[in-house]
């Protein structure tokens, strides 16, 4: 039965594509207008700049050991020095590189796995859907920190790839759920039936018709996964399961803890990397909230008109 | 205004009502200076296509608008009381006992986890104290009056068919015998046979209980036999309003004429129809002057420049320069 | 059909369904409850013909369209396209060819186009798949020609737009253009105007009529609105609860409705120009949901003329007038004099 779904309000809503530059253009425009998104992106951009320009900004080589140990912040060493005489400020700047790499790398990896599993479950249906769901649920329910600790402990190699791998394994399941739901709801949309009706093959339909309509969600999940990666990496490295010889904010925390920085009167050694971790996490969280607001107008802050 | 007896005060008076939606791109006017009067017991049909503002108007009258929509100008007087300045408490006293609302889709309005009896009881008890036995008797009576077997008091909404659910909604709306029942396309989710059945029932109830009705629909033929007066809306404005029979017999506004010519008939000779070219405008950027002029077959020089008022002609009001006698 | 056109004799047979049946299982793996979507449908569509399939929701009309479009596989019966069974098509090439000959246009103008691509996307893909004879340049030119054929000019402008920039009526025309891209013989139009504004519907209906006239394409027009069916169609098929109740030339069915359901439907259609004819019934009656049905006519509960035979024997379609069939015991045996006289005076 034909039900009229058009209401007056629908005539004024924001369409999926509202820009001449397609989906990404629309997403971009939506983000540009949202205050949270602008703040989050600016913060993220700031860290990217720092990572790129580290060699230029850092006053010293971060692994240089010739300075005095546990020095307080001063004009020569903005944030003081470590227990082995390295400049904390330089370490912080160079550490940005690895921390960002982990965040973005693990975020992308987790998102990729979520997309493959979530969308496949929606499209294969039947017994495969049940199996993949069970698989997803198991991972969703496993306590992540203990799991990470166990995997990290048993693997002898402590390198960057392993760290990223552990984060991806524990972080993909949340996104997979959401993606499956959205893919299921799209499955019966008329334009997909139209694609099938004109003879397109399934793989084409999934890649070129379904995924582009899920762009918003996929990008949002990426930022969520990146947030998770920042915090998970920091946690793992802090307890020593990362590579202590690499340079990132998390390993700085590890060494600070190992040297009893707080007790020894050098709180900056702990606070500086901790603050950066929180700031990068906040950047991703802000962008995530912004996506929620863009896709659901009901969540937007209501602007009252001045009377 | 037309067609109300000058000695009795109208039940509802709407004067120059404006409703805006506050969007990122600025306010969008969904209802533009609409004025209506409704006498006691009168059946007013409001007809229009998507984006004309009829549903928004209805919600505004019922004071059910929520952000981002708001009433930005105008007055609404219900039985001599100023509706716009009332707060939630005062409105709650009016709701259901003085006026009630029937929504477009009962599945959206009925609580899926409560039985029909519980929902009727809820509606009644929210406004009036009534002993249990009397409540039950009243509920049974209400269902019978709308044509549902009272045994369905124990049913949940999903156990009823579409037509029955709509009737249950109407029973709820009549629970406290209000003076005005506002209906927003109550038949659009039903098939043709159920639609007709429901319309006849509504008209019969209206005669028995004497309530006034504002009935919003996109399908003019549906109200053609039932409404006393008919208002045609386009792009947020009322473009024609008059006695139903007259609007059908002699439509004046070119839009109304075009609408009449958009309904193929199953009776009589088959004739080619033209419809109306183009489509309703984007309310965020309405056309200049007369809003219908881009689609109007009778437009002339004055139309894109000036906005027409409502001009009186033969007991009707028409928003078109063709009827400006000056 | 629209009166100003000369009536044509339909051409040869294009598509025929034979005993087409579709049942849906309700519940889990072990359930024995089946919802009878459609039962035993015999339908014929000829060249150069518009057939309207009319019924309420749950009557099975959309199911038939999807069976013909191969979205659903039939539970029983067959679909013959130029005499060849559609069910037995195996190779991708054969299926693709069939899909090109019998494409579908959908109901929802807001959902039938992918929001992330320009409207040219669907048309170009359809051309790429079905018109391998065309070069890239050829496809571009053909896309423009298609938009002109559906009344969207200037074509080049429209091709570059996104769906959100078009109105509902324009989007439906794009849907028709996509169907036309495959060089179809028969277009399955599933309620193409139900979600459009009233003033826009006529334009799209006129488009269907002109496509049939100019491009010689047949249509299966599925709708619940009998008045629009009369406006465009040559033949009318009335469905009730998954079965064909009546079928025949549209004017004949409207002038001499034989099945009581058709009569009920016609009396319920609101027409501002006609006076109210019938009193309402106080009870609510609706088409049944057909689950594991017994023998007998499915309309009997609502039928004012039902006789004893109606509960025992399922009526079959019988020819009662030239080319005009109905499935009703009372009509077939011309019982009940009141039945014969009362309803025929609708015109």
Describe the structure.
The complex is a heterotrimer of chains A (307), B (326) and C (347). By secondary structure, chain A is mainly α. Chain A has one domain: MetI-like (MetI-like fold, Orthogonal Bundle). Chain A is built from 12 helices and no strands. The radius of gyration of chain A is 23 Å and the shape is elongated. Chain B is α/β, with parallel strands linked by helices and 326 residues long. Helices cover 28% and strands 23% of the residues of chain B. Chain B has 10 helices and 12 strands. In chain B, α5 crosses α6 and α6 packs parallel to α7. Chain B is globular and about 70 Å long. In chain B, 51% of the residues are buried. The N terminus of chain B is likely disordered. Chain C has a domain of 65 residues. Chain C is built from 13 helices and 12 strands. In chain C, strands 6-7-8-3-9-10-12-11 form an 8-stranded mixed sheet, sandwiched between helices. The radius of gyration of chain C is 21 Å and the shape is globular. Chain C starts with 12 loop residues before the first strand and ends in a 5-residue tail after the last helix. At the B-C interface, α6, α7, α8 and α10 of B face α6, α7, α8 and α10 of C.
Summarize the structure.
The complex is a heterotrimer of chains A (307), B (326) and C (347). Chain A has 307 residues and is mainly α.
Topology, pairings included?
The complex is a heterotrimer of chains A (307), B (326) and C (347).
Chain A: H1 22-33, H2 35-57, H3 88-124, H4 126-141, H5 144-154, H6 160-171, H7 173-187, H8 190-197, H9 202-210, H10 215-238, H11 249-258, H12 268-295
Helix pairs in contact in A: 2-3, 2-12, 3-4, 3-6, 3-7, 3-10, 4-7, 5-6, 6-10, 7-10, 8-9, 10-11, 10-12, 11-12
Chain B: E1 12-23, E2 26-38, E3 43-47, H1 54-61, E4 69-78, E5 81-82, H2 88-94, E6 99-102, H3 106-109, H4 116-125, H5 132-146, H6 162-173, E7 180-184, H7 192-209, E8 212-217, H8 220-223, E9 229-234, E10 237-243, H9 244-249, H10 254-260, E11 311-313, E12 316-318
Parallel strand pairs in B: 3-8, 3-9, 6-7, 7-8
Antiparallel strand pairs in B: 1-2, 1-4, 4-5, 9-10, 10-12, 11-12
Chain C: E1 13-26, E2 33-46, E3 50-54, H1 61-68, E4 76-81, E5 84-85, H2 92-101, E6 104-105, H3 120-130, H4 136-149, H5 155-159, H6 168-181, E7 186-190, H7 198-215, E8 218-223, H8 226-232, E9 235-240, E10 243-249, H9 250-255, H10 260-268, H11 308-312, E11 318-321, E12 324-326, H12 329-332, H13 337-342
Parallel strand pairs in C: 3-8, 3-9, 6-7, 7-8
Antiparallel strand pairs in C: 1-2, 1-4, 4-5, 9-10, 10-12, 11-12
């Amino acid at each position: 039965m034909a039900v009229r779904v058009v209401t007056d309000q629908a005539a004024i809503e924001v369409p999926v594509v509202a820009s001449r530059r397609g989906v990404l253009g629309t997403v971009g425009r939506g983000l540009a207008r949202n205050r949270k998104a602008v703040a989050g992106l600016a913060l993220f951009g700031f860290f990217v700049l720092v990572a790129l320009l580290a060699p230029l900004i850092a006053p010293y080589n971060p692994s240089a050991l010739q300075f005095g140990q546990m020095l307080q912040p001063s004009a020569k060493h903005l944030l003081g020095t470590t227990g082995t005489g390295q400049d904390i400020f330089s370490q912080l700047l160079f550490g940005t590189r690895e921390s960002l790499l982990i965040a973005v790398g693990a975020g992308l990896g987790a998102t990729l796995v979520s997309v493959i599993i979530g969308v496949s479950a929606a499209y294969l249906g039947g017994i495969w859907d049940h199996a993949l769901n069970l698989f997803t649920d198991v991972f969703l329910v496993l306590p992540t920190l203990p799991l990470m600790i166990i995997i990290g402990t048993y693997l002898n190699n402590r390198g960057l790839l392993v760290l990223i791998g552990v984060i991806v394994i524990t972080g993909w399941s949340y996104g997979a759920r959401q993606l499956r739901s959205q893919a299921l709801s799209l499955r019966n949309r008329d334009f997909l039936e139209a694609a099938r009706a004109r003879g397109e093959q399934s793989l084409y339909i999934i890649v070129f018709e379904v995924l582009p309509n899920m762009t918003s969600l996929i990008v949002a999940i990426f930022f969520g996964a990146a947030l998770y990666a920042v915090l998970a990496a920091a946690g793992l490295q802090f307890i020593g399961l990362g590579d202590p010889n690499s340079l990132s904010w998390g390993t700085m925390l590890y060494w600070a803890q190992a040297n009893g920085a707080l007790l020894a009167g050098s709180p900056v050694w702990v606070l500086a990397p901790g603050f950066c971790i929180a700031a990068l996490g906040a950047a991703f969280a802000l962008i995530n909230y912004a996506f929620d607001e863009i896709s659901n107008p009901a969540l937007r802050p209501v602007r009252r008109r001045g009377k | 205004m037309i067609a109300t007896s000058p000695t009795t005060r109208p039940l509802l008076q709407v004067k120059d009502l404006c409703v805006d939606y506050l969007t990122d791109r600025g306010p969008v006017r969904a209802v533009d200076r609409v004025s209506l009067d409704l006498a006691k017991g009168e059946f007013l049909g409001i007809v229009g296509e998507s984006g004309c503002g009829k549903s928004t108007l209805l919600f505004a009258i019922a004071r059910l608008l929520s952000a981002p929509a708001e009433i930005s100008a105008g007055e609404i007087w219900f039985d001599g009381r100023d509706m716009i300045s009332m707060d939630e408490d005062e409105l709650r006293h009016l709701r259901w006992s003085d006026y009630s609302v029937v929504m477009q889709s009962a599945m959206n309005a009925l609580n899926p986890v409560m039985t029909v009896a519980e929902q009727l009881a809820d509606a009644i008890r929210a406004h009036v104290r009534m002993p249990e036995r009397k409540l039950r008797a009243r509920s049974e009576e209400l269902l019978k009056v709308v044509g549902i077997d009272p045994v369905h008091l124990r049913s949940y909404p999903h156990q009823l068919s579409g037509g029955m659910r709509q009737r249950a909604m109407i029973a709820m709306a009549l629970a406290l015998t209000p003076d005005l029942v506002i209906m927003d396309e109550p038949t659009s989710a039903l098939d043709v046979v159920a639609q007709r059945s429901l319309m006849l029932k509504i008209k019969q109830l209206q005669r028995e209980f004497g309530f006034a009705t504002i009935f919003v629909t996109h399908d003019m033929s549906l109200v053609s036999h039932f409404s006393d007066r008919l208002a045609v809306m386009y792009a947020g404005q009322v473009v024609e309003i008059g006695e139903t029979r007259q609007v059908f017999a002699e439509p004046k506004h070119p839009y109304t004429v075009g609408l009449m010519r958009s309904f193929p008939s199953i009776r009589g000779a088959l004739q080619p129809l033209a419809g109306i070219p183009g489509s309703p405008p984007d309310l965020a950027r309405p056309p200049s002057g007369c809003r219908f002029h881009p689609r109007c077959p009778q437009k002339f020089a004055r139309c894109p420049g000036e906005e027409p008022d409502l001009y009186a002609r033969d007991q009707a009001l028409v928003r078109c320069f063709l009827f400006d006698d000056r | 059909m629209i009166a100003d056109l000369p009536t044509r004799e339909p051409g040869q047979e294009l598509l025929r369904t034979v005993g087409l049946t579709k049942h849906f299982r309700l519940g889990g793996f072990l359930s024995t409850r089946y919802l009878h979507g459609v039962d035993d449908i015999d339908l014929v569509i000829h060249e150069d013909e518009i057939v309207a399939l009319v019924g309420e929701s749950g009557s099975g009309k959309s199911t038939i369209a999807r069976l013909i479009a191969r979205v659903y596989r039939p539970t029983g019966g067959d679909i013959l396209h130029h005499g060849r069974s559609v069910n037995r098509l195996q190779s991708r090439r054969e299926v693709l060819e069939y899909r090109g000959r019998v494409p579908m246009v959908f109901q929802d103008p807001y959902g039938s186009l992918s929001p992330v691509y320009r409207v040219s996307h669907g048309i170009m893909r359809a051309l790429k798949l079905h018109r391998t004879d065309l070069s890239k340049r050829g496809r571009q030119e053909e896309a423009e020609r298609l938009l002109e054929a559906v009344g969207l000019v200037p074509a080049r402008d429209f091709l570059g737009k996104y769906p959100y920039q078009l109105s509902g009526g324009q989007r439906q025309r794009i849907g028709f253009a996509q169907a036309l891209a495959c060089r179809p013989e028969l277009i399955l139009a599933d309620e193409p105007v139900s979600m459009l504004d009233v003033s826009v519907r006529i334009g799209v209906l006129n488009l269907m009529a002109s496509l049939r006239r100019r491009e010689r394409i047949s249509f299966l027009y599925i709708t619940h609105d009998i008045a629009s069916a009369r406006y465009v169609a040559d033949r009318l098929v009335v469905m009730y609860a998954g079965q064909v109740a009546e079928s025949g030339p549209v004017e004949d069915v409207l002038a001499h409705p034989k099945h009581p359901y058709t009569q009920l439907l016609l009396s319920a259609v609101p027409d501002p120009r006609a006076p109210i004819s019938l009193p309402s019934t106080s009870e609510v009656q609706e088409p049944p949901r057909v689950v594991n049905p017994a023998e007998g006519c499915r309309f009997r509960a609502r039928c004012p003329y039902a006789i004893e035979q109606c509960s025992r024997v399922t009526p079959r379609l019988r020819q009662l007038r030239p080319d005009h069939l109905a499935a009703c015991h009372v009509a077939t045996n011309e019982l009940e004099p009141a039945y014969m006289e009362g309803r025929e005076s609708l015109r």
